[in-house]
Amino acid sequence: MATLVLAAAGSALGSALGGTVLGLSGAVIGRAIGATIGRAIDQRLLGAGGDPVEVGRIDRVRLMGAGEGAPLPLVWGRVRLGGQVIWASDYTERQTRQGGSGKGTPQPATVEFSYSVSLAIALGEGAILNVGRVWADGVEIDPARFGMRVYPGSETQLPDPAIAADKGTDAAPAYRGTAYVVFEDLPLAEFGNRVPQFSFEVMREAQGALADTVAPFARSIRAVAMIPGTGEYALGTTPVRYATGLAAGRTANVNTPSGQTDFSQSLAQLRKEMPQAGSVSLVVSWFGGDLRCGSCKVQPKVEQNDVEGQGMAWRAGGIGRSAAAMVPRVDGASVYGGTPSDQSVVEAIRAVRAGGQEVMFYPFVLMDQLADNVLPDPWSNAASQPAFPWRGRITLSVAPGRPGSPDRSVLAATEVQAFFGQAQRAHFSVSGGQVVYSGPAQDWGLRRFILHYAQLCALAGGVDAFCIGSELRGLTAIRGAADSFPAVAALQVLAADVRAILGPSVKITYAADWSEYAGLSADGNRYFQLDPLWADSNIDFIGIDNYLPLSDWREGEVQADDAYGSGYALDYLAANVAGGEWFDWYYDSPEAEAAQRRVQISDDQDEPWVWRTKDLRGWWSNPHHERIGGVRSTVSTSWVPASKPIRFTEYGCPAVDRGANQPNLFVDPKSSESALPRASRSGRDDLAQMQYYRATGLFWRDGANNPLSPIYGLPMVDMDRAHAWAWDARPFPVFPARSDLWGDGANYARGHWLNGRVTSQPVAAVVAEIAARAGLDAIDVSKLYGLVRGYAVHDGSGRSALQPLMLATGFDALEREGMLMFRSRGARIARTVDAGDLVASDDGDFDLTRSNDSDSAGRLRVGYIEAEADYAARVAGAALPDHDGSAVLDQEAPLVLLAGEAAAISERWLAETRVARDGLRLGLPPSMTGLGTGDVLGFGGQRWRIDRLERGDAVMVEAVRVEPGVYDPPQTRAETSAVPVFTAPVQVFAQFLDLPLMTGAEDPRAPHIAVIADPWPGRVAVWVADGEDDFALNSVIAAASVIGTTETPLAAARPALWDRGAPLRIAVEGGPLGGVAPLSVLNGANLAAIGDGSPDNWELFQFAQATLVGVNRWEVSLRLRGQCGTDGLMPAVWPVGSRIVLLNRSVRQIALAAEARGLARTWRIGSALRGYSDRDVVEQVLAFSGIGLRPYPVAHLRVAAAGNDRLLSWTRRTRIDGDSWLSPEVPLGEDREAYRIRILSGPETLRTIEVAVPFWTYPAALRALDGPNVTVLVAQLSDRFGAGPERQITVA
Questions:
Q1: Where is the GTA TIM-barrel-like domain (predicted)?
Q2: Does the N-terminal peptide bond of residue 710 adopt cis geometry, omega within 30 degrees of 0?
């Protein structure tokens, strides 16, 4: 399909990237090679005379190999690879012993074998940017958990320590030039004790001398804005969970298998993909709810106020969750995330700076009015304000210029003051690691917002820059009495207060909108209203949110900017950075805009820069004289020319068709501000965004365009701190794919986001590297437009590496004057000829041909690799309207593509083959120079692309017909790919229970453990250590238990009788409850424990009836209480909130040696696969008494008169074999029979007596000494445990 022109370049491009020469002849100018999308399509229609070359195919399996001499892939963009094992150690075997206690009740011993191995896996030629996601056996894993080390393939990398230890320091290879990873001591248990099939997401930029001449994408961006500015814990580095039960709940900020919080993972991705990004603008939002500044509160809000976050309680603005207003909801869902908690903001600041990046703090007012509100619109007569408007529309109660507006009055200043509020620096302090506010509680003005975060930034250890506000264009345009600007004056005061908090080292600014920074035109006057702020000593640089347009591209070939040839042309876009709209000209009406009828900008006082919003240099380098009533003031403002640098506090472009026409616009259906750029056809267009950044970087990094200041000695525009909008704190590709988590994911496709896009490479850079590797040093890629999301070449020639790119992006390779030119295809006519221009031949003036339809395919299926997901192999298809179902062609595009891109490619290929059925051969005179292969001729009312030229007495041309529409940029649908749903691992909930013997087969010393988790991690391990180190595996739990929390009280009841009291309601987790027949209860079924959550305070009971009364809510009734001797511990009431554990088989005993009873030890419980050092393990320091050794309480304690004495008697009970009806007497169960009697008078113990029989006579003499109404307590004794629970009786 695409043509590659030979000549001298033919053999060079035929050279293998590392080997043989193709050896093609260059005798024919413009001979096409490899120009086909499949042998089934007639090559004559796609490029005369060429044969296709074999190219790489889609790797659907991605098997990790270990073959000697296997080629290493060369990667551009972002791809998924299997890799090649280049080193492996011997296997290491480990044995883990459980049980086998030699003392007390014998326990069976088990030995588990586990294995590990170390290995190195080569990924490809270096140097790569980094490795992103990693999969093992197709499942994404956390590489940090397995200690993966990445070597990017630099020429200076050193041998890995593990390889050096195995091979010897001198013999260990460093594998320089090869990117590889190392797993050291990789545990294999979770992979079935085998090495899994790994695959890796590899990112690499185009490199080399030729590629370096191509303007970069990612490396043109040196700073980013971190959005969205909302999400209660979106900025946290601490995992937070909203718990709705003991184990039930949902994660707040961990949504990837990386094991990191979303922010931590996104920040890591930023550093991997944009290592040159040295500054991060941290966006944090409070919410405004009214466009009338005097009525607008700016306050932090939460998504919900029912459940607090575990691990980090929400607090912001000096208030907690319960005091905060809620973000509005639509259809039950919050329209935005809540304000980030203060602690999460502190964590984010520290995390960014810890990585060596600067932080610019960027407070953001986010308007949250819903549609159909009842707030009067200050900009119109509407009774309702627009939904989710821009903060720049905040204005007076009636906007300036409208009848009744208080603009230019004292009332205007009063309304502005109400917006700023009365908060003072003295109202803020730090206590307990929190910012505390002591001012008026209902003062939610801008000052409280800004001063709170100034204090918080100081608490975090400082920031590098701080914005005191942004894009408050409507406010700064408000005039008070005598044409004062009260909002500007208030910002000056605010800047001074922030300076006092943050100190002299922090750079302070206001982030002005691009339409605001330079001045204000109102009522025939031209003001430089922000100059007092810009000149203020507390303002360090001019902050501009720069979304000025870089293009005015329209549909069709006839338009004002047609000379540039393409809206993607870098020279066109760069020329409009300081040119074009808002510099040279403007539109004075919608009609003029539609017709491109431009009005030139001029000034009768020879200061056109006053009106040129784009003329940063003119504004920056000149004194400013206001024009009042059209008269230029003789006195300049306080602005000192060239005194302070300019920083773009925001700049960027949406990834939408013709986004550079109006980069400030965005698509968000819920917002009234949602709009497409001028003349946009609405499709997704990542190339438009890429070209915007490349052109902007090209222009401002050219010293000729960015002069040095004679005052501070640095460039006018500080591009190292120009913050590209935007990088999301939610990691890619989970955002945008997980629409179930975030409601704005659908906006990503056509939005300003850079996540997932910055690794894309300009196709020009990729072609340049391929050409350089093939030995070429003279190429031209200036007219080559396109991007490569991901592409890997495993072997082959330069030609075979180029062909998939040529087919997918649609470009030709042409030889012109000794240089190989790569040029995007189009149908723009280079020259029109008619019959009079032709040179006649023996066959006539010209020859028109049309191929047989049977040679063409009517339907095409294109295989590709899916982008923005897990790189699955997908198929897109297209069919011509007259396709009859036959002649279906399957073809592969071995690139990473969006589904819409793949569909557009298949449609273009089909359309081009259909149009190219028509061929033309004609002769032109030698004098008609300048034409070459790839150019388009106009002839006979049609367009013909020249595929071949033969020079002789005449220039013989072979061409095929083309149509302009075929080469229009594809309108990719705004879709998102799907990724597997990941449920974050969570802490288990572990309940230790030191219980009595229940069956008699238990170890009487050892406690039980019940564990629940949501989700259940598969196997849960219990580790133990005597201190904080040297943990050893104790037990493994295979199944979750059933644990609950009571929601009604449970009063005491007599043991051994049915408790027919009120049902006990329980919130249950881990599984359901179930009723059984009463006889089953008597046979031991449905045994449960109720307690206060401590290890040893449990009553055992059984129940016959269990009724589901709500979601995970059960009521149990018909109970048997105080089982297994726990009646002695039964309180008067078990209160609401008591713990319930169903004692089924999932509750198991852990191992506890006899000598460990009573000793405090450290227990860790967590996922068996993740190990005891995992951050989610639960740690408890506990000692266990061995309740299985505890004697039961005595029964039937009575007192009877025996003369003047009193006879106390009771019945002995046993903890061992006491349930048999056949025994005449229950066995003793202890080494000896003994009881302790205590006599109390009130709280005072009067005497303690030990007896060996189940009765005691209380002599009258002792009674006389002890006094009346004493309490007698009796407990059975155990030599190994001590006293059991006491029974008591009052003796009068």
A1: 444-736
A2: no
Token pair listed for 623? 């004194």
Domains in the chain: boundaries = 86-196, 223-747, 989-1188, 1195-1291
Give yes or no for a contact between 1210 and 1255, defined as CB atoms under 8 angstroms apart: yes
DSSP for 163-206, please give it.
HHHHH-TTT----TTEEEEEEEEEE-GGGTSS---EEEEEEE--
pLDDT at 1194: 96
C-beta neighbour count of 884 within 10 angstroms: 9
**Pick from 1018, 1006, 1031: which is nearest to 1164 by CA?**
1031
459 Cα distance to chain centroid: 26
What is the residue-wise DSSP string for 1206-1255?
EEEEEE---SSS---SS-SS----SSS--EEEEEEETTEEEEEEEESSSE
The CATH number given to 1195-1291 is 2.60.40.10
- Cα 908 to Cα 631, 952, 1281, distances in angstroms: 59, 35, 85
> Which amino acid makes up residue 1209?
S
- Are 482 and 512 a contacting pair, CB within 8 Å? no
Q: pLDDT (tens digit, 9 = 90+) per residue, 19-74?
A: 222 222 222 223 233 333 333 333 433 354 345 555 555 665 566 777 667 789 99
Only one residue has tokens 């997908």, namely: 874
Does residue 133 contact residue 155 with C-beta atoms inside 8 Å? no
pLDDT of residue 881: 84
pTM of the model: 0.91
Q: Are 223-747 and 1195-1291 the same fold in CATH? A: no
Q: Which of 769, 765, 692 is nearest to 725 (CA)?
A: 692
Confidence of residue 977 (pLDDT cuts 50, 70, 90): confident
894, 917, 995 from 42: Cα distances, Å: 22, 9, 83
C-beta atoms surrounding 844 within 10 Å: 11
Q: Which is more confident, 1222 or 333? A: 333
223-747 fold: TIM Barrel (3.20.20)
pLDDT at 1098 over 50: yes
Quick check: 550 and 573 in contact, CB under 8 A?
Answer: yes
Distance of alpha carbon 893 from alpha carbon 987, whole angstroms: 45
Other CB atoms within 10 A of residue 591 CB: 9
Please work out, in degrees rounded to the nearest 5, the angle formed at the alpha carbon of residue 1074 by the alpha carbons of 1069 and 1079: 140
- Give the separation between CA 626 and CA 542, rounded to whole angstroms: 19
Q: What is the pLDDT of residue 796?
A: 78
Pairing of strands 989-993, 1008-1012: antiparallel
Instruction: State mean pLDDT over 1260-1278.
Output: 95
Query: What CA–CA distance (Å, rounded) separates 572 from 568?
Result: 8
For residue 100, the model assigns a pLDDT of: 54
Contacts of 196 (CB under 8 A, 6+ apart): 136, 137, 188
User: Which amino acid, 407?
Assistant: D
CB atoms within 10 A of CB 1175: 12
Phi and psi for 50 in degrees, rounded to 5?
Answer: -110, 150
Q: What pLDDT digit, counting tens, does each position of 357-408 carry? A: 999 999 999 999 999 999 999 999 999 999 999 999 999 999 999 999 999 9
